[in-house]
Amino acid sequence: MPTSAPPSNRFERRRAETRGALVRAARQILAEAGDTSVSIQVIAERADVGFGSFYNHFDSKTELFEAAVQDALEEFGQTFDEHLAGIDDPAELVATSFRLSARMAESHPELMQVLRRRGLGHIHSDNGLARRARRDVEVGMASGRFTAVDPTVALSALGGTLLSLVELRFARPDVDGDDAAVNLAEMVLRMLGVPPDDAHEVARRPLPDLA
């Protein structure tokens, strides 16, 4: 779960713990089946909190599930921040993001199932991975590493391709996920204007350890 400054007193800590428990329960439900029609009572029981506590934090299930998706996407982005620190080449950042995402289907299955089920509606979000991806694309264009195009269009292409890769990892577990991610990363780099030989090499650079 994304980290934040700890609450300053016992009441605020308990309130934060209850809200966190509800968000975790909603994330689990989204990851397992994506069924947002479950009752608030079921959510509260999953979170191990009182039914009445729900409305102290959320006005509706829709608000809770949206918070759960945002929480998952921010965790996704923070995970990448941690593992991509020190990489300055925008092309390598994009390629490594694709390849790590394929591996996270096994290392972070709940998180990736939430992305799989709800990520499409957040490709252009101001938070989570989308904000970071747009930053990397804009840096790549400003530096001449990528062809100058509309960053919003580029983000649509990157997000759609990434979600397709995530779907492939879950829908076709027989397919070599690492190999598929490398090939997709190379294709995306070429789409962004990286020369073919360069794209081939960058997409195969050593990966940081997800452990």
From TrEMBL:
DNA-binding span(s): 39-58
UniProt xrefs under Pfam families: TetR_C_40 (PF21306), TetR_N (PF00440)
Entry superkingdom: Bacteria
Gene3D superfamilies referenced in this protein's UniProt entry, alphabetically: Tetracycline Repressor, domain 2
Matching InterPro entries: Homeodomain-like_sf (IPR009057), HTH-type_TetR-like_transc_reg (IPR050109), HTH_TetR (IPR001647), Tet_transcr_reg_TetR-rel_C_sf (IPR036271), TetR_C_40 (IPR049513)
Keyword DNA-binding annotated: yes
Domain HTH tetR-type per the UniProt entry, residue ranges: 16-76
Keywords recorded for this protein, A-Z: DNA-binding
Protein name (database record): TetR family transcriptional regulator
Organism: Streptomyces bambusae
